[in-house]
Amino acid sequence: MTGQVCGICEGPLPSKTGSRGRTAVYCSAACRQRAYRSRRDPAPDVEALIAEVGRVANRLAPQPPEAFLTDLTSLTSDVGRLRRIAQLALRPTGENVTPAPVTETLDEVTFAGRIEQHQRELRVHCYRMVGSYDDAEDLVQETFLRAWRGREGFEGRASFRAWLYRIATNTCLDFLRRNKRGPRPYDPLPGVDQQGEPPQFMPWLQPYPDSQLVSAEAEPDEIAETRETMELVFLAAIQHLPPKQRAVVILNDVLGWKAAETADLLETSVASVTSALQRARPTLRERLPERRADWARTAQPTEEEQTILRRYMAAATGSGDSRVMAELLREDVLVTMPPNPLWFSGRDVFLDFVAESFDPASPTYFGEWKHLPTSANRLPAAAGYVRRPGTRIYRAQVLDVLRIEDGKVAEITAFEPHLFPAFGLPLTIT
Q1: What is the DSSP letter of 238?
Q2: What is the per-residue pLDDT across 201-228, written as a single tens digit (0 to 9) for each?
Q3: Which domain of life is it from (predicted)?
């Protein structure tokens, strides 16, 4: 049968009568494309994935921390792939495994393998749209399920990646329509003499683990997540845009799509996309630091920032030198704690607030602190653990993300600790 039937679907090959060139191997361009993709992106071996999960899980150990983090990252990725394969396999009874789409046939495992390649960048895309890591995780899963259910609609006119971005963007826009979110100024704190106007309160804002970003060494068709577009100050600024403007800015100015491509994805006109950009950019300029052009372009925190982080962690133990902390902070440092409504503007205001909680003789003494270094949103961060009086275990308490300018801490965003596992951080230490 070799040379007489298609190498993919085993259907009859087109007649070669009157034509020149090599004998056809595939009956159509769709089968030729599927053969190419099967060679380039082989379907995952489910049994091998399960075996790998068991192997890594059996060797998990908290020490040394570098190996522990590496194993946790590998385990999370493999379990995620298995979960998506299982979700895609949960179809109504009697439904064909693979209804015939327009251009190619994809079974559950093959489809899961293809969308797995885009998981990281789509999660970042959803995170930029909504500002929340937890919501972005849910939205990516919903995107994949929508993609599977609507796979017959993939006609191959655009790339598979662009098709997934269309689904992810619309999923985020639907979410934002259901969940009306708008930044508002923090309320004044009674008895606290703050400096300047209250900042904007966004209780949904969460940090993003650098370990889950697309690296600078990624494949050419993947977007390396630049520091400028992942910093919290940018994430906070873009939350002020209406959802459609936000999507246009992310697709055009962050991902580098052409206006025509963005218009096609959003099912609108190029003129509408251009108009949205013209309205959105002035809003962003008002919300971003004036020295935005001077931001470091490195993918990871610089050596200077790492040094400042180490000094910050030493000074934040409670037994550290308060003078060192004062030297590290800029005079007009801003401290926020989403989703909590606490905020402090000014170095002296903030240090006066924390002084009593660090003093063992004070009735408001909170406990003894330890910190582990990490990074979030391409910024240095300190994972804080506290041992409360009368206990022996240090428990996760806060994740301080630092924005540093001219060798000083200009902003501290203190987050709750429930995302520590996503950062590969333990919830307790000794």
Answers
A1: H
A2: 999 999 999 999 865 445 444 444 666 7
A3: Bacteria
